[in-house]
Structure formats: structure tokens, C-alpha cells
Design brief:
Layout: E1 8-11, H1 14-26, H2 33-53, E2 68-73, E3 78-83, H3 90-98, H4 105-111, H5 116-126, E4 137-145, E5 152-157, E6 162-168, E7 174-181, H6 191-201, E8 209-211, E9 224-225, H7 242-253, E10 261-267, E11 273-279, E12 296-300, E13 303-306, E14 321-326, H8 335-339, H9 342-365, H10 367-381, H11 384-387, H12 392-398, E15 400-403, E16 413-414, H13 415-421, E17 429-433, H14 437-441, H15 447-452, E18 457-459, H16 463-470, E19 473-474, E20 477-481, H17 495-507, H18 509-519, E21 525-528, E22 537-540, H19 548-556, E23 567-570, H20 575-582, H21 586-603, H22 611-626
Helix pairs in contact: 1-5, 9-10, 9-12, 18-21, 21-22
Length: about 625
């Protein structure tokens, strides 16, 4: 069939040019991975053909024997990777190779640090398979034809800003990628070297990877399969090496690092399925893109069905990578069917338990590994008690926090360890929330707790307010914010101090009344504090009201926040409050009242309505000290 072969020159998207430069320089020390990435792409193309052919068998074009072929030409100095998978149309070539259409592109480039080692990891997570060819090639030619289409297309580029496209005759479906090697890359024009790379990185690929046969009795025309060509997850665990598990993880995740842990399970009975899950070592750059789908590939009887099947893993475990292969689901299963399929519910519930189990094992037996995991994924795990009621207790045991026990920013305190250290008579788990660790550590609400030696959890992650609003207790002990409601220390209270505060409340009643009148609707009440020992004032809210810093976060995110006035508490023993109680000048009382309120608001991470007025009042008061 003849086609219009007019060649067209197009420009790469700017992000592609940036990515190519980064990749060529950052990945050069591990340049052999180009072959792994191209084989992985070819395997994906075959998976997609199998899936589309479920509803249109004609796409096989009379040949359902899928494979990947690797060849090299010493004279032309080329390496070629070809497959007979789904192939691409002209539009798909432009979309998949000329541009980066995936979400998270901006976050990816913002995450780059200039540190070659760190950037290498990020580049791997971003998934740059095809472009890795330019690490070893100064020109790449891609010829492809989509299954069911009559016309092929040839793409060619030297990776320096532009590429050409032309229509071509291609009798077979699929994609052929030819790498024209750079002058110093002759090592890849060697049969043994290429086979060694395939064995190292791609032995787990379920398709046959075929190379030119070698040996005296070899069938040169037919070639020979150089990998195991069986899905790794269906092999017995005892026959799989740690290296093979690690390489398969890199295949499904596009991560360049090995995983932290893996879980391989075969279930038989009313349902039959296999799962192979991985916990990564590091958080991907797009972990906080909650709208993006993550992680789990679904197969039915070894036939690929879909990427990123979000129904198989809850959102708080979105960092988990791997595969689920079911023997029972229909081959035509869709995302809509998955949402209401009882078999999927069963697989999901069992999968979550397996993942939580491996995390529990790490926490108990390899605390250093778990600390590394928590540093990367702790904030995501804190979503768990809200999303997964069935496993709330198990997840709560896995949570880690900073606390006044160590006063360090490291989140290494488990709730069960907190409970074990509770003072005799203490019946609550106390915590304070703030928008930074420093603000939490230095919160005035802590003063009475530090004086009495009562441990308080220091919560400064954005998710913490959401977490504590749903995780109400642990091991029968309620969680209590020290900045909400009346402070009740139960048996830990000092009766003499309580009597003294009641006496002070009576003596300062006129002052608290005047302060409330001055502040008006800004506060619900002004009262004497039992929390404070050093600071003059603090803000608290009612037990079920939203904390001040949480209100600020929601407003910043554009949410409508119900208007709730805080309570201003004052320290009756602080010199400023004592002086204020003896002040007779009404204006000075008003100015000091506003200053104490504004200071307390700033301590809570709130924003002043009128910063200029605050500064002016403070300056006026400071001027009095110079007279």
C-alpha cells in the first residue's frame, strides 16, 4: 500500500527538552537501563493489545503470538527493540513522545534539586522510558503502526529540540525503536552484553524476548528466547530471588531504587487470586496529587486489564505499587464494574490487611526501617483512621508523633508508648496542634503540662487536625486537645492551685468584664487561665469548635469557615495582667487588652485584622517605658 511520505518537522514541548538534558546527564552512570525501559514499554504495548483484542479480535491481524525482539548491527552501529503490540497512530506518537501530557509535570520540575543523585530518583519516578534511549544514542528512529490501521508512521530525532514525522509502509503492527549509538557506546554492540542486561533487568517480563540465536546448532532465522517469559507473580515464591523481586518492582513502578518491602500472596478457595505488592523506600513527587490514580495493575488470568486500579487499594495506601491477578473476574471488567463487585471488595480488604501486616512487622522488628518509611509516608498514613474505619485500631498503632518526651521534630512516639508512660491518675492523651513544629513546641498551652511533667503530643502536619477530629481515643484513653474547652487534669490537678485560681477569678472579675466589653464579638469570653505559667494570655476554643490555625488553613484553601469566636484566657500572676488590673486609664486598658488578644492570636498562627493598629499600640506602650 502506498502512502504520502511527506516529512514534517515538529518541535518538542519545552518540558521534553528540559527532561532530555536532565536525563542524559543524570542517568549516564547507569546508562544500561535504556534497554530495560524500552523492553518495559514493549511489554506494556503487548498488554494493551491483549486488552483491546478482548472486544475486537481482528486487532491481532491473524497473529496472536506476541513477543519482543532485540537485535544489533555492528556495521550500522545500531541497536533495535521491536514488538508486535498495539502500536501507535500518528496522533498517539505526537501525544506520547512529543509532549508530556501526564498530570504532575509541574510538581516534577519543581521537585528537582540540582543534586544529581536525588534528581536521578525523581526522573525514574516520573517514568521516562522512551527518552532513556538518548543516553546512549545520538539519533533515534521509531517506526510504528497501530493495530487495525493501514498506515505506519516514522518518528526520528537527535534529541536536540525537534523531531520529524512521516507516513511509511509497515506491513506488521507494533513498534520498532532503532538507536543509532554514540561513538563511545560500542559495548552495546555485543550479543553477550545485551543478553546480560536482559537477564539482569527483564527476566521477569512475561513475553518472550527473542534475540538472534547463537551456538553451532542454533536456528538463526527463528532466534531464541533469552528470558524466562513467565509472569513473575505466578511463580512459586521459593523460586524467585530478591533481585528478581526488586527488578520487577522497578518495572511496575518506574522507580530506580529497590523497594523497602514486598508482599507476595496466593489465595485459593472461594476466590483465587495472586497479589504482589511493594512498599517503596521514598515518596514519589506526586504523592499529594489525590486526584491522580496510583499504583496497582489489575490482571485477569495473566491478561492485563488496567493500570492504576484505584478500587484495589484505599487512598491512604496510594504509595503501594504492584499487581493483582484474579482468576475469577470477567475479562471485560471495567472501572464501573469494579466499584460494585463483591470479589473486588474481598480482594481489597485482604490486600489492606497484608500491607498493614508488613508495616506492623517493620515497626516491631526493624524500627529503623519503619522510621525511614514514616518519614516518607507518615502524613499519608495519618489519613487512614479517617478513611478506613474497619482498620482504625491497627492504623492507630502504626502512627508516630513528635512529643514533649523528646522535644525533637522526629515523629517517633507511638501512641502505645505514650500510654505506657502516662502518669498515675492521668486518663487522657494530650496533644497540641500548630502550623509548625516550633509553634507547637513553644505553645503557651504547654506551660502547665511542662511544669507538671505531663507528656503532650506535638502535632504540626496539616493532616493532624483532620486526624484528631476523627481519632477520638486509643486503648480506651480519649485524645484531648490542650487548647480546647476547660482544662481538666483530673487527679493530676493541684487543689491548692485550683483554689488560688478561683480566688483570682473573683479578684479580676471587673478586669475580665472590661476586657470582654473592649474586644466585643472578637471573643466569646475572657477568663482566668490555669494553663499559663509564663505567658500573659492565650486563646482557646470550645471543645467542639474548630482550632484557630485549622480555620486559617481552610480559609487559605478557599473553604467557607463558620464564624466561631475564641476564648481569651489571661494569666493572673503575670506582671502585665497584674499591672493591667491596677490600671485606671481606660485607653491604656483598652490598648493592653487588644495587645494581649493579638499576641495570643499570633501564637495560634492566626492573622491580625489590623497589623498596623497592633504595631502602633505596642509602640505607644513601649514609649511609656522610656518616660
Amino acid at each position: 500500500m502506498s502512502v504520502d511520505t511527506q516529512k514534517e518537522t515538529l518541535g518538542f514541548q519545552a518540558e521534553i527538552q528540559q527532561l532530555l538534558k536532565l536525563m542524559i546527564h543524570s542517568l549516564y552512570s547507569n546508562k544500561e537501563i535504556f534497554l530495560r525501559e524500552l523492553i518495559s514499554n514493549a511489554s506494556d504495548a503487548a498488554d494493551k493489545l491483549r486488552f483491546e483484542a478482548l472486544t475486537d479480535n481482528a486487532l491481532y491481524e491473524g497473529n496472536s503470538d506476541l513477543n519482543i525482539r532485540i537485535s544489533f548491527d555492528k556495521d550500522q552501529r545500531t541497536v533495535t527493540v521491536s514488538d508486535n503490540g498495539i502500536g501507535m497512530s500518528r496522533e498517539e506518537v505526537i501525544d506520547h513522545i512529543g509532549t508530556i501530557a501526564k498530570s504532575g509535570t509541574r510538581q516534577f520540575f519543581e521537585s528537582l534539586t540540582g543534586d544529581q543523585a536525588k534528581d536521578t530518583r525523581l526522573i525514574g519516578q516520573f517514568g521516562v522510558g522512551f527518552y532513556s534511549a538518548f543516553i546512549v544514542a545520538d539519533k533515534v528512529t521509531l517506526t510504528t503502526r497501530r493495530a487495525g490501521s493501514g498506515q505506519g508512521v516514522r518518528w526520528e530525532s537527535n534529541g536536540e529540540g525537534t523531531y520529524t514525522l512521516e507516513a511509511v509502509d509497515k506491513p506488521t503492527r507494533g513498534t520498532e525503536v532503532t538507536l543509532h549509538l554514540r561513538p563511545d557506546e560500542d559495548e552495546f554492540l555485543d550479543n553477550y552484553r545485551l543478553r546480560n542486561i536482559i537477564s539482569k533487568y527483564s527476566d521477569h517480563i512475561s513475553l518472550p524476548i527473542i534475540m538472534k540465536a547463537s551456538g553451532k546448532d542454533a536456528d538463526i532465522d527463528k532466534g531464541e528466547t533469552v528470558n524466562r517469559a513467565s509472569a513473575l507473580w505466578v511463580r512459586p515464591k521459593k523460586d524467585i530471588t530478591e533481585q528478581e523481586y526488586a527488578e520487577f518492582y522497578k518495572h511496575v513502578s518506574h522507580d530506580f531504587e529497590e523497594p523497602l518491602a514486598h508482599i507476595h500472596t496466593r489465595v485459593e478457595g472461594n476466590q483465587s487470586y495472586t497479589t504482589l505488592f511493594y512498599v517503596p523506600k521514598r515518596a514519589p513527587f506526586d504523592l499529594w496529587d489525590r486526584d491522580g490514580r496510583h499504583g496497582i495493575k489489575l490482571y485477569v488470568r495473566r491478561v492485563f486489564i488496567m493500570d492504576d486500579a484505584e478500587q484495589l487499594m484505599p487512598n491512604y495506601l496510594r504509595f503501594v505499587r504492584g499487581v493483582v491477578d484474579s482468576d475469577d473476574l470477567p475479562l471485560n471488567v471495567s472501572r464501573e464494574i469494579l466499584q460494585r463487585n463483591k470479589s473486588i471488595d474481598t480482594i481489597r480488604a485482604a490486600s489492606v490487611k497484608k500491607v498493614l501486616g508488613v508495616l506492623e512487622d517493620l515497626a516491631s522488628n526493624e524500627p529503623e526501617k519503619y522510621a525511614a518509611f514514616w518519614k516518607e509516608f507518615g502524613r499519608v498514613m495519618k489519613e487512614g483512621p479517617v478513611e478506613d474505619l474497619a482498620n482504625r485500631e491497627r492504623i492507630a498503632k502504626l502512627l508516630r508523633f513528635a512529643s514533649t518526651h523528646t522535644d525533637t521534630e522526629a515523629q517517633d512516639v507511638a501512641l502505645e508508648h505514650y500510654v505506657a508512660r502516662m502518669k498515675t491518675g492521668q486518663d487522657k492523651i494530650y496533644y497540641v496542634t500548630a502550623d509548625s513544629f516550633a509553634a507547637a513546641k513553644n505553645s503557651p498551652h504547654l506551660e502547665i503540662f511542662r511544669k507538671k511533667g505531663i507528656e503532650v503530643l506535638l502535632l504540626s502536619d496539616r493532616v493532624d487536625e483532620w486526624l484528631t477530629s476523627h481519632l477520638n481515643d486509643f486503648a480506651g484513653k480519649p485524645l484531648q486537645s490542650i487548647a480546647k474547652g476547660d482544662l481538666d487534669l483530673g487527679e493530676l490537678e493541684d487543689q491548692a492551685q485550683k483554689d488560688e485560681l478561683e480566688k483570682a477569678a473573683g479578684e479580676l472579675k471587673d478586669l475580665t468584664t472590661r476586657m470582654k466589653e473592649t474586644l466585643g464579638d472578637k471573643v466569646k469570653e475572657v477568663r482566668i487561665s490555669q494553663r499559663l505559667t509564663r505567658s500573659p494570655s492565650c486563646l482557646v476554643v470550645e471543645e467542639h469548635d474548630m482550632a484557630v490555625n485549622f480555620q486559617k488553613m481552610l480559609k487559605a484553601a478557599g473553604h467557607a469557615v463558620p464564624s466561631t469566636a475564641p476564648i481569651l484566657e489571661i494569666n493572673p500572676q503575670h506582671p502585665l495582667v497584674v499591672r493591667l488590673n491596677n490600671e485606671t486609664d481606660a485607653q491604656r486598658i483598652a490598648d493592653w487588652t487588644h495587645i494581649l488578644f493579638d499576641q495570643a492570636l499570633l501564637n495560634e498562627g492566626g492573622q491580625l485584622d489590623d497589623p498596623t493598629a497592633f504595631v502602633q499600640r505596642l509602640n505607644d506602650m513601649l514609649m511609656l517605658l522610656t518616660k
